[in-house]
Description:
By secondary structure, the chain is an alpha/beta fold. The chain has helices spanning about 35-45, 120-140, 150-155, 180-185, 200-215, 230-245, 250-260, 265-275; strands spanning about 15-20, 25-30, 55-65, 70, 80-90, 105-110, 145-150, 165-170, 195-200, 220-225, 245-250. The strands form 2 sheets. It has a 6-stranded parallel sheet with strand order 8-7-6-9-10-11, sandwiched between helices. It has a 5-stranded mixed sheet with strand order 2-1-5-3-4, with helices on one face. Strand 1 (about 15-20) and strand 2 form a beta hairpin. The chain is elongated and about 65 Å long. This is Isochorismatase domain-containing protein 1.
Amino acid sequence: AAAEPGAGPGGGGSVPVLFCFSVFARPSSVPHGAGYELLIQKFLSLYGDQIDMHRKFVVQLFAEEWSQYIDLPKGFLVNERCKVRLVPLQIQITTLGNLTPSSTVFFCCDMQERFRPAIKYFGDIISVGQRLLQGARLLGIPVIVTEQYPKGLGSTVQEIDLTGAKLVLPKTKFSMVLPEVEAALAEIPGVRSVVLFGVETHVCIQQTALELIGRGLEVHIVADATSSRSMMDRMFALERLARTGIIVTTSEAILLQLVADKEHPKFKEIQNLIKASAPESGLLSKV
């Protein structure tokens, strides 16, 4: 491929490169002679909002002679048109599930009126969900809300106050990971963790969680704010998700992790939310 004159260090020109990450592929260019560090910088400039820096990565080059990707050769320099990809390794640098308000977003999934008579302990998860959203407002945490086919299943229940939600979106797909949701996440700098709750545990919650971890995000499912019609479906979904590395936790643990210190300026208000604890319904005994 012809290099563009005058670009790059020393007037060496630039070289077209296709940068691939996950399901995405974006054409760009780098200076002629660019190496590993410049490729990483370009990946971050293109996909920084989606790359979880708590993972380890390998850069691979598409090798025509093998018709597949190979690990970037030692000392590799870009001198002709090529295709590279960034691959997250399965080994993840331990984060221990730490949460900070600046890197967290809340997902409230399908807490709708028509589910009220069918979902076990629905009143309890509404109460806990409302307190989580109050906590999110106090701590300045973005909230994304979906409603499954609201034309037929109704809107989010009135008890849940959606004031200040970043996005309230109707859907027919079970997973919350829609193009509009991905775009909203891309607008939130530094997002690392998603706190997920709603219904149903074994359908929309499970599918959302699996898609999110596939994108390198850490997922915390709030056990006392998610349920299903069947407690067996709920139990096996939570067990399966925990085995994949998703963190199954509780609303009190989430809120106290987010404030982290008694001296936090919002601690008293968060503490008051926690004191309004959910009834002893037996929901958590069925995790």
